[in-house]
Amino acid sequence: MKSDIEIAQSIQLEPIEEIAKKLNISRDALINFGHHIAKVDKSKINLKKRSSKLILVTAVSPTPAGEGKTTTTIGLADALCAAGENALACVREPSLGPVFGLKGGATGGGMSQALPMENINLHFTGDFHAITSANNLLAALIDNHIYHGNDLGIDPNKITFNRCVDMNDRSLRNIDINSDRYKYKNRFNISVASEIMAIFCLASSLEDLEYRLGEIEVATNIDPSKPSILAKDLKAQGSMVALLKDAFMPNLVQTIAQTPTLIHGGPFANIAHGCNSFVATELGLSLADYVVTEAGFGADLGAEKFIDIKCRATGLNPDIIVLVATIRALKYHGGLEKNELNGENLVALEKGFANLSRHIKNCNEHYGKVVVVALNHFALDTDQEIQFVQDAVKDLGASCFVCKHWADGPKGAMDLANGIIQMLKLADKKPLKYVYDLDASLSEKIETIAKKIYHAKDVKFEPEASKQLEDLSKKYNDFPVCIAKTPYSFSSDPAQRGAASGHTLAVRELRLSRGAGFIVAVCGDLMTMPGLPKIPASEHIYVDKSGFIVGLS
């Protein structure tokens, strides 16, 4: 069996200009990065408002067995195009942290991949480098201001803005800044968890980007009677936008089936809001009749934030939600270990189905959306197991389609595509529901998510978080919240599989993302700077004698 990268490297790619023609994008709107990747300058496009359908792809709670959410996003877009529809995929850019760590690449798999996969996974068009540079420019300007006299009165012990790097490096979670004039403690975040990334993916224009960057709170004033220091007080936002100007244009690539694909931005859903950029989604909706986009990790994280943060900020409203599940993942949630998933086990499957059931009910009840289940097929799935899932999903009032796009490409997701086309033709678009009201208090918003979506019995604010909650509630009570927690469980404990209920969500810390416009609630042991596993994926990646990259997956 060929690996993902072997499949990807065997494909003859179309020139990116030919892919652009499918969307009526003219040559002068493209800024090429080689023959198969281009930035899209939407100022050169005659954008037309159209009644496009937005399809949100999310998933069950992730497991070590893998669910294939990006693979399904790409496979569905491919199948829609094969069915004669004008469709595109709109997904996030991969982060180098997981590429070299545990998760691997993020361009799909098998016959449902975005290409050229090695370029997309490694550096791509430099967007993440630009975001990292803009972030660290602001950090440098903070220190520089203090060094040259500190006219703004920045309290070095209360600098809230962190440096970042797009790599898993646990040694950078806590750092000491030592200057001959000042000392303070700080930390690095992984770039995808930075506020710059969040702003980049929510901004609607360069003007909005500049405004939001200027609103970042970087530190508290030494004089508590004076307001906090913002990035605009350091006159940082103009040069930050200069670094981000080209990166802010969405990237156009193609799938194996030559479906146009926009890849842009990439916050994680466990530590940020987990969606690709709004400008890419907006561009897609003006170019195609069907836009298939994804939200990170499970529907309790990615989909909730897509709706309560991205949709609330931008006015987007998905027409339907596709929930990706696998029989292997459900058996894992039913108590089996990864090495036990290959054999039929209806008992574990029935127990683990509670995880999928919870996500379906959340999407129906709390997000107000029709749900379709995409059962991503694996070769060792048995007929009895497949039938059980289909019947159980039907009992919940949803449709379930077995998908084989990993092996068969577009035809493997054709049942899913045709089912969605028919459903969207026959059904009126349902109003979007938000999980909480903006006029609720910050604590009420966190508790509402915890109790409605996670089925927690209570929320515990640890002492530092309680103090931060009190301070933030005075000025930012109307902000939405972004809960940073483990993606592997409905609780804040990754060991609690299935559909954990009755637990206590422990909030360790609250962080203000003033420019992005939300409050981050860090729960449990989650770190915004991950570490590498004992055997990182980097050990298996190399360049062979012919100059081809080997080992990416």
Structure description:
With 553 residues, the protein is α/β, with parallel strands linked by helices. The strands form six sheets. Strands 1, 2, 3, 4, 5, 6, 14, 15, 16, 17, 18 and 19 form a twelve-stranded mixed sheet that branches. The protein has a four-stranded mixed sheet with strand order 20-22-23-21. Helix 6 (127-147) crosses helix 7. The protein is globular and about 70 Å long. The protein starts with a helix and ends with a strand. The mean pLDDT is 95.
Which features characterize this protein?
553 residues; alpha/beta; twelve-stranded mixed sheet; four-stranded mixed sheet
Mean model confidence by pLDDT: 95
What proportion of the residues is helical, as a percent range? 25-40%
The rounded distance between the terminal residues' Cα atoms is: 13 Å
- The tally of helices reads 18
Oligomer: single chain
Q: Per DSSP, what share of the residues sits in E-state strands of 2 or more residues?
A: 15-25%
Q: Per the principal axes of the C-alpha atoms, what is the gross shape?
A: globular
Structural class based on helices, strands and sheet pairing: alpha/beta
User: What's the total count of β strands?
Assistant: 25
Low-confidence stretches: none
Radius of gyration: 23 Å
Largest sheet: 12 strands, mixed
Q: How are the SSEs placed, and which strands pair?
A:
Elements: H1 4-9, H2 16-21, E1 30-32, E2 38-40, E3 53-59, H3 69-82, E4 87-91, H4 96-100, E5 108-109, E6 112-115, H5 117-121, H6 127-147, E7 154-159, E8 163-165, E9 175-178, E10 183-186, E11 188-190, H7 195-202, H8 206-214, E12 217-221, E13 229-230, H9 237-244, E14 251-255, E15 260-263, H10 278-287, E16 290-294, H11 299-314, E17 320-325, H12 327-333, H13 346-365, E18 371-376, H14 383-395, E19 399-403, H15 405-408, H16 414-426, H17 442-453, E20 458-461, H18 463-475, E21 481-484, E22 504-513, E23 518-523, E24 542-543, E25 549-550
Parallel strand pairs: 3-16, 3-17, 4-15, 4-16, 8-11, 17-18, 18-19, 20-22, 21-23
Antiparallel strand pairs: 1-2, 2-14, 5-6, 6-14, 7-12, 9-10, 12-13, 14-15, 22-23, 24-25
